[in-house]
DNA sequence: CTTTCATACTAAATCGATTTAGTAATTATA
DNA sequence: TATAATTACTAAATCGATTTAGTATGAAAG
């Protein structure tokens, strides 16, 4: 039951290994019809399957890319991964996915391991905390694409949402419909997580631009497990906002859970818009108005950029791509009634 | 910028490659403190990173497994994948995921490619149509685990839900609450997709056991895109069932979409129970009563079984594992009112 | 004082492909 | 007719590790 190698095929077909190799690589130029057939028959007979590891060692290319994500539970991750998968399968590439759990230590380790495994390139949803490691890859011209988040100072391709615009879209929609007291729900803004900053800051700026009040209490920026508490505290204070902007799917889930537990009526008592078009948005009651990221296009772009870098390692000009969000109007934010059913304060 | 190899390290440290290799594999037994330090320094100085491809060629193990799924959009897939990932990361394994799209041709190709890539084992959500290929792997004692679906006649490990029980759980719950006219929504039952058969047949048997009518019209078994139509036709006929059993998350989405579009009230006009505990089940209105698959345990088990096979290729006894579903009682099926709001004949 | 043993290494073979440089035979060109 | 070119191959080096069999040295044992 030992493995069949090229040498076995060569022996059976009565040719050299070199010729078999030529055959496998379809370099038929100077090969007789007769030889070709003999080799084909030998391969068939032995059930020979080439060993790609051996080939990779010589060729220094593995036709494999690595993807490091910081959170698989995120909807964006799943969908982008799907798109990357698809783009890779079209070109015969394979994908190895690793989960950094937003832990820079783990991320660093996975980068090392994947590079040791000789992946041809890396697409990273970065934790943002390994600037030195990222920088080294850029300097070595190792193919690298950031997605979802980017790292200031590291000159690499980055595929991002236009987060400011996404926040503005939400605020403008609320504003136009007469909502004034608007809050935001997000994990804590930290300087190395750019999109979070951009969404929260974009929200603040859009509020200012529309001349709407910026109320500190309406900025629920705390870790996911504490969002319920914060929301409850705000609710108990009696100064509930009229509308809430959830900056991603995970925070939206918290908001919905809170609303459910407190029998708050959407959109009459509280309007909601979130980034990430969750799959149940159109079957929820009310249907959810969301701001969709073009996840598929983003994943595809990331893969394309990586392939570009792999193809011509040298003269590659890193670029930052900002993808426009799409506003999907549904039912969780409507024309605001002047007289509310449950007036607070 | 050429790669640093073990030979470079050996030269700088003034030892042989063998010694460096021993060092890297922590076989310090007969190595002087002095040498160890020199090697460590040389590695540090050169920024040496071992090439795992070369190592794999010699060792005939890649510390990589392949997973072939038939549908990434399925919730089960995502969650099981997550569990497999985690189990692999614990043991230093990497995972390559490929999507067969339920196309046997694709599946066959991916099996070939992954084996050419020398993966140490394969976890497959099988299309069910490549029995010959699966069988060959079993005969060669190539580590293989089926998950979600199994293939009759192929003696390999299989991780499955107890589908009959899942169906029975739903029917019994409905029956005990006074529901009589119960329907099922599923893709078409085909002989090579075992769980689908088991769920539909299990449903039929449970109905019989409870002495409930088996109405052909209440078996909506058609491809996902046509479910809306079938549901509409049934609805138009005026003979709506009182309860519906959705056999997975994808069919549930169709049911919910239909319900939404037709302003049907859950659970008063139509009760619903589905297999797969969708992430929004607890925030939906009403909350959704579901039958959860222990996805995490299943993924973990699949990985463990594969590792077992990898560890001792020979004396491995293939087994079929049936995981028990968990009934999660929420609000989409309640005590049935004797007088219905909208009585249909 | 030889032999054995333990220690601290190394040379060379090996894994299974690809690739380069070359050979032998035949055909075309000067 | 001698030389060049083309065709159809092959031997051997190579990729970068691991591993086996072995060597050299000094200490312990007989």
UniProtKB/TrEMBL annotation, chains A, B:
Residues forming coiled coils: none
InterPro entries: Cro/C1-type_HTH, HTH_LacI, LacI/GalR-like_sensor, Lambda_DNA-bd_dom_sf, Peripla_BP_I
Domain of life (superkingdom): Bacteria
Domain HTH cro/C1-type: residue ranges: 2-49
Endpoints of the signal sequence: none
GO MF, one annotated term: transcription cis-regulatory region binding
Entry keywords, A to Z: DNA-binding, Transcription, Transcription regulation
Domain HTH lacI-type span(s) in chain numbering: 4-59
Keyword DNA-binding: yes
Protein name: Transcriptional regulator, LacI family
